[in-house]
Amino acid sequence: MKAICNREALLAACQVASSAISSKDVKPILKNFKAVADEDRCVLMATDLELGVRIEIAGMVVEKPGEAILPASKLISILRETRDTEIHLEADADSSHIAGKSFEFEMPSEDPANFPDIPIFSDEKYHEMTAGTMRAMIRRTVFASASEMARYTMTGALWELEKDSVRLVATDGRRLAWTQGSASEHGGHSVKGQSPVVPSKALNLLDRNFSDDQESIKVCFRPNEVLFKTERSIVYSRLVEGRFPDYKMVLPKKCLAHAILKVEAFGAAVRQAAIMADDEVKKVLFKFNSKKLVLQAQGSVSGKSKVELEIDYQGPDVDIAFNPVFVSDLLKVLPNDSEVRLDLIDAASPALFKFGEDYQYLIMPLT
Known about the structure:
The chain has helices at 7-17, 72-81, 131-141, 200-209, 263-274, 324-332, and strands spanning 2-6, 32-37, 42-47, 51-56, 61-64, 66-71, 86-91, 95-99, 104-108, 126-130, 156-161, 165-171, 175-182, 184-186, 197-199, 216-222, 225-229, 233-238, 257-262, 284-288, 293-299, 303-309, 312-314, 318-322, 339-344, 351-355, 359-363. 17% of the residues lie in helices and 40% in strands.
């Protein structure tokens, strides 16, 4: 293959695709990209066998169609260091050549036929939604998913589909994020009888693919796998194995008290109080009463903090302790100039934050 590339466009595609390359020891060829150039476009591919991406490289002029294996880390390093606008790329099964006005690199290559295939999106049954809606849903849930492999079934977000809506749920056992957004169903696409959990790594890669909030995103669930199609890419992922917890069992059915909290002011108070919390045992006491909220933390050696905040509160006094990181994680994904409602029962029961009708975030209290 032979092509002329825009450096920034090629680098952007490489950086997105590199998210699908495993950091673990895998087949050597999987440390590379596969490029497939047709007469009018070039697609870059990467996979770790669990996650894969096909992304079209913008602004590329194909002089000679073909396929090639490109060393991922070396290619990205070259593109980062040069400031040339135009890059000349030529590659075959033996070597790859990258050149600009004042540089030239030659690297060994491999046979493209040995690179695993990544599925294409050809399904007629799927759900469709805007990138803006999906981006907001991903960012409001994925941070609450588990990172420990011991909680493997929680290392992603549960997807629940209806004809005109999609719900995402993520939990690590100590907190839970639930959100929903509008979507349209095509061809009878359904996950009835299934509980598909999409890995967090796949959702983060998908988020990096969005270029315009109004672009249309298609999602199709197959047995044990999912495909997402954006305007310039296809993201493929195996689903997380195992059964996702019955999250509906932990959502409170009632509340005895509630507070209306201004996101920016509340976030600042939480961060201030958390300064004195121990790194090993992150803990801030939230004391709610009809006049104000008092936040207190005490470290074993660092000292103690006390921060007061006027709030709109109704109900009996409640003293409840939270991990301040969990509270801050929520506030980071909400607009600074907005308000969030907090429903409380008592010091030992889960607390539920609500933002509008489409977002809920539950935190387990600390004892």
